[in-house]
Amino acid sequence: GAVIGILGGGQLGRMLSVAAARLGYRTCIYDPAGNPPASHVANAHVKAGWDDVSALRDFAAGCDVITYEFENIPAEALDLIGAETPIYPGRKALEVSSDRLTEKRFLEGLGLAVAPHAPVQDARSLREAIAEIGSPAILKTRRLGYDGKGQARIDGPEAAEPALEELAGVPAILEGFVKFACEISVIAARGADGQVSCFDPGMNVHRNGILHQTTVPAPIASRLNTDAVILAGRILNALDYVGVLGVELFVTADGLVVNEIAPRVHNSGHWTQNGCAVDQFEQHIRAIAGWPLGDGSRHSDVVMENLIGDDIGRLPAMAAETSAALHLYGKAEARPGRKMGHVNRVTPMRKA
Ligand code: ATP
Ligand code: MG
Ligand code: MG
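Structure for N5-carboxyaminoimidazole ribonucleotide synthase, as requested:
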């Protein structure tokens, strides 16, 4: 049967592998780590670095289509495998989303609202950025940040120097702090034929910069739900996108502000596993394999809770709960901040 290659073997790669297997595909994971979560369920695991030319070529040659579970794959690695085998979502989505500044400019180009921002590369540009944007603000590395890593809060000019020291010369962006009523996200899918389908927006609550909980339906005006879905569709079309995309949004008094986009399945879409006939993982596999998109309409209300670090100690109690669907990632060691699994608490859909 056909083989789907997945760059990155974390929990997202694991759940993609399970969905691919369900649709009759074989999966091959590429991940430098020795025992990543996806390697337990995939058909094969290439354990090699992102600079291993022959491993990358062999991997690509053995796959019919390739996708990824994180957006920071080195460009040279993408060039190598892309010359051999199609990669979805395509390069444009990766280029735009792997740099926070490029991403914000792309979104502004579509006429979408983003946080006030300025590039920062040294003490002087940071001082100017703080003067222009004001405080509170957040200094973020332009590349490679996730789960709030590589971010420092700037409450005033005096916070500039310590924040800069922490950055140690890495290109950054200063973002004005958006006063939001809540955060929502849209998990949006686009097929190879241009068909678009969005899952219902969920409301997200973060703790220490890490997603804690997603609730669907999001308790927001239906007009905002519609705005969010239309906005996500515009991003998909502008990127000529194939696959699932996560769009994180702030709900403000002036409407929706885009926080960031992720060209992959997304943690805030895990509720779809128990809230829809076709979840975000199957939807992604369908899209990259050239199938029609499936039915992503919601049949239940769901609250997804991430199990992070020691949360996993509550497993026995959660395993005994009714209407709680557990999803565990098979990680041996529970470290602080480490995503160990999630639980979807499902209830019948309430009429709007
Ligand atoms: P991930 O990719 O895991 O979602 P990340 O490291 O890319 O996280 P962000 O999404 O940029 O981080 O920020 C994490 C959280 O911090 C946001 O969901 C939001 O709660 C808060 N935050 C980030 N930027 C801003 C901002 N400009 N104004 C207000 N809150 C913000
Ligand atoms: Mg991010
Ligand atoms: Mg985020």
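The two ends are 44 Å apart (CA to CA).
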